[in-house]
Design brief:
single chain; mainly alpha; two-stranded parallel ribbon; 2 strands; 58% helix
Amino acid sequence: MYMKFLPRALVFGGSWGSTLALAYSQTHPDKVTGIVLRGIFLLRKKEIDWFYEGAWEPFRDLIPENERDCFVKAYHKRLNSDDLNTRYEAARAWTKWEMMTAHLIPNDETIKKGDSDEFSLVFSFHHSYTHARTHSQVCVIQFLFSL
C-alpha cells in the first residue's frame, strides 16, 4: 500500500477496491480514521457468479480449453492475430462480455455495440490492456484472501 507516509488516513475504496480498503483497515486499524466504500464488490464466489451470469460462457467458449489458464493472454493473442477475422471474432466476444457486465441491469443498446467489428476492435484493445492489469490484481487478492 502507498500509506506509509501517512500516520492516519480516511480509507476510500470502490468496486473491488472496497476489498482492498477493508483489508487495509482490518490489518492496520490504528492507521485508519474511517472508511468510505462505494459499489462494494468483495470478490466472493456468489458475487462473481451473479456478476458474470449469462456473459461468461460466450466469452469463455471462444478460447480453447488448453488456453483457458489465462484469458487475458489468450485474447491478447487473438486481438493481435494476423488474421482480421480472428481479431474481429475476439473483439466482438470481448466487447459483448464487457457490455453485458458494464451495468447493474444489462442494457440492450450497449450490448448491441459489440456487433460492430470496428467498434469492438477499438474497444477491446483498450479494455483488454486495462483488464490485464485489473485481473492480475484480482488474482493476487483472491490468492491472498483465499476466497
